[in-house]
Amino acid sequence: QVQLVESGGGLVQAGVSLILSCAASGRTFSTYAMGWFRQAPGKEREFVAAINRSGGSTYYADSVKGRFTISRDNAKNTVSLQMNSLKAEDTAVYYCAAAGNYCVGSPCYTNSYEYDYWGQGTSLTVSS
Question: Are 66 and 126 in contact (CB under 8 A)?
């Protein structure tokens, strides 16, 4: 089992950068693909970014492509989301998730049903 704890959210102004982090428990972190999802008030949870086990492949939602970067450190059991040029529409609760399945093809890990474990979320508010 994997436990995930997100951190780094808060209240920021539009245009700034912020890093969200997710710390994972357990010794099997490197066997999971990792993803970030978000849920804005009154909206469904949506895919943001994902990274495969080695960190060699990454996937992004069109809405964040070019602004957000996902990365992982398997030695430290962490996955991060670097967010640049934040916009008011990035306001949401951000969730870290771990996927144990292997994906064939591309894109991968863009659907919530592919994930086995979820964190509690960290809230981000971007003021315009």
Answer: no
Specify the pLDDT at position 103. Answer: 85
- Do the Cβ atoms of 97 and 35 come closer than 8 Å? yes
Residue 79 near residue 71, CB atoms below 8 Å: yes
| Local confidence band at 27 (pLDDT 50, 70, 90 cut-offs) | confident
Report how far residue 47's alpha carbon sits from residue 94's, in angstroms, rounded to the nearest whole number: 10
Burial per residue of 50-68, b for 16 or more beta-carbon CB atoms within 10 angstroms, e otherwise: bbbbebeebbbbeebeeeb
pLDDT at 10 over 80: yes
If one counts every other C-beta atom within 10 angstroms of the C-beta of residue 79, the result is: 30
**Burial label, 125 (beta-carbon count in 10 A; 0-12, 13-18, 19+):** middle
